[in-house]
Amino acid sequence: MENPLLLFPQLNISASKDKPYYKVMKPAIKEEPNKASKPGAKQKRNRLSLLLQKPEFHESDHLGKAGNLTKAASVSPEEAVKWGESFDKLLSEKAGLDAFTKFLKTEFSEENIEFWIACEDYKKSKSAHDLLPKAKTIFETFIQKDAPKEVNLDFHTKEVTSQSMGQPLRSTFDAAQSTVYRLMEQDSYPRFLRSAAYRGLLQGRPAARAPLRRRSRSFTVSDFQGVRPDLTVW
């Protein structure tokens, strides 16, 4: 009996064609998803590149630029002069409060002004129902032992504040706020008035970059008893 492949050679041809055809088509199927995914990956890379170019992603540009108190071009030398009249005048104006806050960040003591601002907001609570959660947050953030932003309070003031936490009133933090206010007024405020940043505002020019200053120790009210602040502008 003769070999059927010799009688029907087309069988061998079709078989040989099927196999290569499958090999050609298989990679083509795999390549389609890759082509579709490439634009997505490219877009992700582009978005990441844009994000990295934003200022907030550069740590060196974060709090170190506290000397840049002229960010708001509306601050005139005449307005800056008023900030030197009194500490209360400085804090009563939004631009002054912002400038002083940035200055405290260079000294790593911004917890004082943040506590003062939190107390001001607390006293403006619209209902007694809002007092308890706000009071708890302020106490846990700034006053209790080992709080993340603990302010320097004497034992008596801290104790009185702690005892009123059960039923907080709008006056709960008045004593603590006054203590911190005096510390800033007699310690940080005079240095702010002597800083290169503030002098730059008085002269109507952009302030130079202020060096970061670390506190050697924490101050208490007793350090300043009987001492009048030096408000001389150099």
UniProtKB/TrEMBL annotation:
What PANTHER family does the record point to?
REGULATOR OF G PROTEIN SIGNALING, REGULATOR OF G-PROTEIN SIGNALING 18
Q: Which organism is it from?
A: Melospiza melodia
Q: Which domain of life is it from?
A: Eukaryota
- SMART domains associated with the record: RGS
Pfam families per UniProt: RGS
Q: Which GO terms describe its biological process?
A: negative regulation of signal transduction
This chain belongs to which protein, by name? RGS18 protein
Keywords, A to Z, come to: Signal transduction inhibitor
Q: Is RNA-binding given among the entry's keywords?
A: no
Q: Which gene encodes it?
A: Rgs18
